[in-house]
Amino acid sequence: MKARFRRKKMKKMQQLSESISIEATSENLSSRVDDNRSTTLGTTDVLAPQAPAGLYGSSKSYENTRDLAEQFFMAIKEVSEATELLSPLKSVCALMVRGIQTIRSANNNLISWADLCEDLSSHLSDMEHYQMELQESSSLSDKSSLEALEFYLRVTKDVLEKASMAIRQNESGLFPGIMHVGVTEREKEDIDRQRVRLLNAWQVYTAAMSRTIALKLRQTGEYLKKHQTYDEAMPARRIQDNYGVVGSNFAIAYGEKVDLCEEGTRVEILGAIREWGNDSQTTRQIFWLNDAAGTGKSTIAATMAKEWSLDKQLAGRFFFSPNSNMTQTTKEFCRAIAEDIAINQPMLGDDVRDAIKAVSVEQHIWFDVQLRRLIFDLLRRLEADNFVFLVVDALDNCVRLEERTEVLNGFIRYLPSVPRVKLLLTSRPIQDIADTLAPSPLVHGSDIQLLNVRHSYHRDINIFVEKRLFNLPAISREHHKMIVERSGGLFLYAATVCRMLEKSRHRPDILKVLSDIGVTDKLERQMDILYLSVLKQALIDKEAGYMMMSVLSMIIVAYQPLSSNTISRFLPENIYVDDFVQDLGGVLKDGHPDRPIKVLHPTFREFVLSNEDRANGFLVDPGISASSLASACISTLEHILEEDLFQLDKPGHLPWRNADIPNLETIVHKFTTPAERYASAFWAHHVATSNLSSELWSTVINFLSQRLLNWVELMSWRGTIGLCIEGISRLREAADKQMINDGTSQVLMVPLFSSTALTSTIQELLVIRQAHQFIVHHQSLISDSALQTYSIALFFTPAQSPIFEDYRKRYSGRQPNIVTSYVTKWEDQTTLGGHSDTINHLIFSPDGSRLMSVGMDGLLQLWSTETGALVGKPFQGMEDPPPFYQPQVRRCAFSQDGKRFSFFSCPNELHIRFSHNGEPVIPPLEWHWAKYFAFSPTMSFVLLVDDFSVHRREIKLGHGSHQIDVLEDKFRVCDIAISPNCNRVVCVGSVEHNDLKKTGRAFLWQLEPLAQISSYDLDGLPPSSPDVVCIAFSLDSNRFAIWLQSNDALLCDGQSGKEIENMGRMNYREGTKPITFCPLNHLLAHTDRRAGDIIVREQKTGKKTSVLQGHKRSVIHLSFSSDGKKLVSVSFDQTVRVWDVEAGGPLESIFPGYTGTIHACSFSDDWRQFASAAENDQIRLYNLQAGAIGQSAPDSTKPMHDYAILGVAYADPLIAIRSQSDSGVALWDTTTGTTKGRILNQDYVVSVAFSPNGRIFATLSDSSTVRIWNVMNLVETNDLGLIAFYRQKSGGIFFSQDSLLLCAFHTGNVRVWDAQTMTPIFYHDSPHGIMEYQNVKLCAFSFDSTRLAGVDRGNQLYVWNPRTNTSVQTTIPKYYSEVFATFSPVDSSLLAAVLSQTIFLWRIDEELQVVAKISLGKGIYGMPSFSSDGKYLAYGPLCWDVVTPLPPQPYTGDSPPSSFDGHQLQAYSFLFYKDGWIHSAFPDGPLLPLPTEFRSIELDRHWHAFGESVLFMNKLGEPVVIDCSPILARARQN
Q1: What is the strand order of the sheet 421-427 is part of?
Q2: For the whole prediction, is pTM greater than 0.90?
Q3: 1397 conformational bin, left if phi > 0, alpha if psi -120 to 50, beta if neither
Q4: Pairwise CA distance, residues 1080 & 820, whole Å
Q5: Cα 284 to Cα 301: distance, rounded to the nearest angstrom
Q6: For residue 1212, which of 1466, 1427, 1472, 1507 has the smallest C-alpha distance?
Q7: In angstroms, rounded to a whole number, what is the distance separating the alpha carbons of residues 1360 and 1379?
């Protein structure tokens, strides 16, 4: 057999053996058949009628045996080509599978005599055809199997004869009315009796053949092991699609199901391809076979691939197809071809494995890089004397134009580097493919048309038809000739007719219909007539028309191919899907009931979706069909969805994160069916495309109200939250449109989460919007952990929502014990997260469909503004870039048409990506020498500037076409910009003179050719930050503006560069754009030097026309409306204002309320959307469109900022929280979640300490003032005055453990007071200078208050006795971060301190002696602590035994030492924060995730853990206390 197919089939055999153990299965099957036959039938006497009670679905033993047998025989059939030893099994197993399907049909309760006769007639013909092969096979022709076959044939013929007799009697009037409309009881008994006989005989035969095959498999087992050549590391064959069809995608991708050319056909075109393939002189490495649909291109491609495989000249192949999601895109294109290369060229197997592994571990690999690494780099290593071939079929089936172009450009780029490799490419002659290939000298064959190769198609099709229909009875040569003539040269037509005749049970009727069809010159019309015939012939029972159309509709509108079994789950039990699929075999390819049904050609799909006149009664209405499928999906889900669907949450372990569950994917596929997986993936998509009837609407609302969280859980387990968001977003959009179309949009301006009484329609609509917001807001958290859907995600959802309030009650047992004053408010905005540092850029695409966000964390994210979902993979800059590379991502922009976006990353890599999917247009281009960059508006080229010259680079090819060396010596560029019409370039910078003084300079160049027009000095220096933009062009390119470090702004002529107007100083902040030009090119606006004012000027002359006043703080964003009549402004005063630029006055704002503190913001061009970067590093995306459903006003009160946890009191559970804005400190009760009160301080409070007894607390301000306050009434009781004379936002204050002493340290000074009398008893001034920041890092009292430890900037560790004013000191290693120290509670002479990732243990006596050191890893933070008995020392999640023996030994217990509970008036906590989760050390692992809005916490300011509880808050000052003890107790259960 062919080498490649043999290897592949052997691998398939081995995989199957691993999963079901073929040999054991066959023997088990044999015994089960014997047992089932005896228990069900009771006798082997085939003439004795048996009770049929166990035959109609109630007998599980029969069904199980039947299913096992079908699985077994189908498996053997598929691998029987692996070796000549197994080839005799192929026909036998094909026969067995067909027999099982016939028995299944015969076992149908509703069968009639006619049905029984029809099934048996077709089956008997096949049996007799295969009988000869069995008898001729010496390896399978043992006596028992031959006798069993003869016995079965004899019974089958007898039953068939009785069925035929019954039909003749009916036709003569003896038994009328038995066809599909019912049978009499007597007839039913007769039919049952014959079915029992048939089943009995079949079981005898099956048992015999099972034993025979088992023996054969044992004999070939060693052969399979010996010839195993496929690498186990190849993963892609096991890839599963979105609802779990295993392996079928790759079968489609390799064209394994594509028919081959019949021998003697396609001689001319195959000869032309072979001649090209063998031509060693040609440089044309691409043979492009293009023609219309249905002309046989894929068949030719599959034939050549198989031929080259036999000759060991095939490298790899990929067949694009609409029958699989994978084969409609290029996502798996390179990997699939690479794996095929490993099979066809086994000497490259190790290289392929290594290449795939290397690509897999990288975060994001561009297609061009994949193509090079996984295909061409590998093929360069191939040592071959002959040519090797790649086959890419039906490229037009790749749905995205950009991806098709990417494939073609990649092959054109890399094929010349491997001259021994050639490509056979097929497609329809669509324009984009033709345009890309036409200029290339590599292309051959583009002028060949399959229908015009010497008009040989009649002969080819005649040969094809003769071979396909040769063995079918009742088909004459005249019929063959008729089919050939009707085909009109389309192989598609002939193949469809042949499949219809092969699959149908009504061949004479089909032939009659075909003979009655007229011939038309239009090929499309000819196919329409044929498709109509196929459909009519499948509809034998006219009353079953709706049943067949129900099946067909689901096949057509499904987002992914469905199997017969899946469709059966979606339809009533009385619809026999298998029968209809078999009858539609001319246009469908079903294979196995568990495999996806594929539409054989796109033209059939187009036919049934066209229009009523063309489809003629068989029109598939997408809306109605989607409604039916949506209802079926929801019904399927309602029967399975429940909390903890897979029963994974059990006592004895920590709450699961999805990534920590072994074999999660296997669990999902084991406990869900393909129908359930499809339903979960696409129910919302189908609802969105349906007619949205009132009945379906009610079903959807009920489903979301009852099963939303269960559905989200399942989608999280499956790792498809993105698909979940996409579906619910489409549903929300469809519901909004439906309401607007119904004329109810005027009443939809209500809050998203409102307690206001609403109409039922609005309430139902808000259910969808709330569901969407829930998933989008918590997408990161839910993706991490499915079960947190019921816990943290549900808790941090607005309480005003009726749907979630009901869920909160239902799943109250999963809610952690949380106390908070934080009120979850989603309002009208979509909240987008992911950034861990300040967001400094937000940019809308021109059409508003995309939003780009860039943060100081080096992260760039692209968002869909419609759904709130991420688009593509985020780009992450360098983790630790050198300072001079900051910022990591810069110069971000969308192209003028919005189809692409670009940015530069550290260190100077150019990235250009598609906006629709975030995928790269080209690989990153590296220009490390460049300092500044400017994109052309169309992104066809980029200008790069080094210190002395400007270079133009064509982006498509990455090389330079122009260079201008006009920059002066010692000139340093600060910014460069290209005009919108691409005719002018402005560059500004500074020139350093001999006296080291600098002056500003500006250049204006023309682009074609690149040459200088003018240059002139500036009255100041431009900004020098690499991310600062200081040039802006008007849209007509006639004006540009420059602004300088001094904030002076110049208006210049865009053609000559001449200065038109010095616009004076602006109020400007780095990162903002203070000038904006009107789109009508008559006005411009800019900020004024007076904070809050806006100047409007004439664009032509620069003359001031108006001053807009109203903002109280600096303006950070300006934008004109599209009609140029209005201007919108955003200010640091947290307001958005709209101005009438002609009248010079304010208008009603499009954004009432307050924005909150923002770092960046942006409006879409149409003003329908507003995005702001919030204080907590999240993006708020607002829909400002009038009539937007579920919208409410933003915050009506101005939020505060710069909150921090300053102190925690444990005797009375209070925390102190600071606000920088009013120098205030609030006391918050951790048991009630309410504020106890506030104190207002004149100075900025840097530290707060509560006395251990909880009666008083002390504050230390940045002015070094210490004050004492009464906890009960918040009245100041003492002002201890100044401890230093310098203002610094540093220092600390704390009480001794016995509440007798109070210590404060600030700018190098330490003071201790008697806490009872508030009299000073000790002071220390650092000898290393009090001006150094944070000289004394930290002080700590011993438990008996006899010692006080502290460290200063002079690397000195002090231990004082504050009562005797004596001390010892020692020099310690230089440290670079905070120092934390603590004394042993039982031995005040033992001190532990953390210095630069090392814990030092000192013994204090006459001097300080180091007794032990413990090295630490990164990422640990906090105060070390001894246990109450002094035996253990803990730091973060780590614990050591520090008593005996030394050095300290790590603690290895399963639970924390009990001696850590309850000392120091608080329990030490082994809880810590990591990667967005609360983690535990005992047991070790994650406990709970923090909600998205709390994940950007600073550990020293926003986090505190005590005992088994944690306290944290976000940057807006909203605290949360979570008691984790119930979760820990459950996790520690045995």
Answers
A1: 314-319, 388-393, 421-427, 286-290, 443-444
A2: no
A3: left
A4: 51
A5: 18
A6: 1466
A7: 17
How far apart CA 519 and CA 483 sit, in angstroms, is: 11
Amino acid making up residue 770: Q
| DSSP, residue by residue, 755-778 | -S---HHHHHHHHHHHHHHHHHHT
- Only one residue has tokens 């047991």, namely 1483
Is 1273 exposed, middle or buried (CB count within 10 Å of its CB: 0-12, 13-18, 19+)? exposed
- Encoded amino acid at 920, one letter: P
Q: CA-to-CA distance for 497 and 530, rounded, in angstroms? A: 8
Q: Which residues, given as ranges, of the chain have pLDDT below 50?
A: 1-66, 68, 71, 77-87, 109-110, 138-139, 173-183, 222-246, 363, 452-454, 744-758, 884-885, 957-966, 1186-1193, 1196-1201, 1285, 1329-1335, 1463-1465
Closest alpha carbon to 729 in 1183, 1163, 1176: 1183
How high is the pLDDT of residue 1046?
73
Taking alpha carbons only, the member of 732, 704, 951 closest to residue 806 is 704
Question: For residue 1297, which phi and psi values (nearest 5 degrees)?
Answer: -65, -25
CB atoms within 10 A of CB 646: 16
Residues 6+ apart with CB under 8 A from 372: 410, 414
Query: Which amino acid is present at 267?
Result: V
Q: Hey, what are 28's tokens?
A: 């088990």
Q: What is the per-residue pLDDT across 459-482, written as a single tens digit (0 to 9) for each?
A: 777 777 777 777 677 677 777 777
Tell me the C-alpha distance between 257 and 306, whole Å: 12
- Residue labelled with tokens 């301000």: 1261
Directed axis angle between helix 3-20 and helix 185-226, to 10°? 110
Q: Name the DSSP class of 374.
A: I
For residues 1472 and 1479, give the distance between their C-alpha atoms in angstroms, rounded to a whole number.
Answer: 5
CB 809 within 8 A of CB 859: no
pLDDT at site 13: 43
In the beta sheet, which residues pair with residue 1394? Answer: 1380, 1399
Q: Give the contacts of 512 (CB within 8 A, at least 6 positions apart).
A: none
Token output for 245: 């069809």
Q: What is the DSSP letter of 923?
A: P
**177 — alpha (psi -120 to 50), left (phi > 0) or beta?**
left
Calpha distance 143→838 (Å, rounded): 82
Q: Please calculate the CA angle 1384-1388-1390 and round it to the nearest 5 degrees.
A: 60
What integer pLDDT is reported at residue 61 of this predicted model?
Answer: 43
Q: Quick check: 1139 and 1145 in contact, CB under 8 A? A: yes
Cα separation, 945 vs 948, in Å, equals: 8
With beta carbons less than 8 A apart as the criterion, state whether 29 and 216 touch. Answer: no
CB neighbours of residue 147 within 10 Å: 13
Residues 286, 415 contacting (CB under 8 angstroms): yes
Give the model's pLDDT for residue 859: 86
H/E/C letters for each residue in 1049-1115?
A: EEEEECCCCCEEEEEEECCCCCCCCCEEECCCCCEEEEECCCCCCEEEEECCCCCEEEEECCCCCCE
* CB crowding 482-512: b at 16 or more within 10 Å, else e: bbbebbbbbbbbbbbbbbbbebbbbbeebbe
Is there a contact between 1252 and 1298 (Cβ–Cβ < 8 Å)? yes
- pLDDT for 94 equals 57
User: Please, how many CA atoms are within 13 Å of residue 857, restricted to the half-sphere of its CB?
Assistant: 17
Provide the H-helix boundaries in 874-997.
Answer: none
Q: In what order do the strands lie in the sheet with 1309-1314?
A: 1292-1295, 1301-1306, 1309-1314, 1320-1325
Distance between CA atoms of residues 1134 and 324, nearest Å? 50
Token output for 41: 């039938």
Q: Which residue has the tokens 């780099």?
A: 377
User: H helices within 944-1006, ranges in order?
Assistant: none
Q: DSSP assignment, residue 654?
A: P
Distance of alpha carbon 416 from alpha carbon 27, whole angstroms: 56
